[in-house]
Amino acid sequence: MLKENFEYAFYMQRQGYNTETIRGYSGALRVLLTHGASLFDSETVKDVLAREQRKFENGEKGWSSNRRRNIANSYSLFLKINGLTWEKPKCKTERKNPFIPREEEINDLVAGSPQTVATLLQLLKETAVRVGEALRLKWTDVDFEKVVIMLNEPEKGSDPRIFNKSDLSPKLMNMLNGLPRINERVFGGKTRNSLKNTFSRVRARLSNKLQNPRLLEVHFHTLRHWSLTMYQHKVHDIVLTAMFAGHRNINNTMKYLHLEQMLFTDVQDGFIVKTAKTPEEAAKLIEVGFQFQDVIDGIHLYKKRK
Question: Is the dihedral of CA 60, 61, 64, 68 positive or negative?
Fold first, then answer.
């Protein structure tokens, strides 16, 4: 199996699949093997999928429909590489609204995490980048003087993005600047799995300490969902939200319009308006989310949504 898995991963690499997708697909094949399937006997793979479906439907620790679909897709690619086919079993796609935590819950996780994980969480919260994108950031992508982060290595076919002082807080920039400069990467070559394991321990400890089981529902990707929902609420413009997310297909952004509408049904639209007479006053307003609107009689007007 070692040889087949190597050839499988090499084929995906040549076809342009990203690293995380290759890792996930290769892992799916290993999972099938550990559950007793033979990769050159598709009937044994169907048996494993059916068994895991029954377990899940009976409330046991089986595979959800989405998990079965992903494993079946991984196996289909394996067969294609080896010149084989199968009658792929049906796996319904389960569509669920993502869990959206409260901001104070995210802040609790940031405050209770070690330096590197805390900085990663704050970055995900403010920019909605995927964790893989964050781990690819280089020190040359960060301009501390101008308060700019350039995302030049996006995942999943997304567009590159630029974040500036309207998106990035002084807190985040200070946290980033405090990280050790081990190599060219901002997060020093840390792996997703090592950070995930550390975060899992932090999450469990804080959930118990604060008596808040909701913290256990927060994953790295949860912060992308939170950030994009909050961004849509801030700008009320689905095109701007799509650009902030890096989505090339705006249909991928529509769920955040729906989430924003559902989560803020009791919040009346309105604005807080502030004035600034000096650059220092303007800077303070921008740091807390106000946006420039106009100049009247030499006074600069700023506003943000309530």
Answer: negative
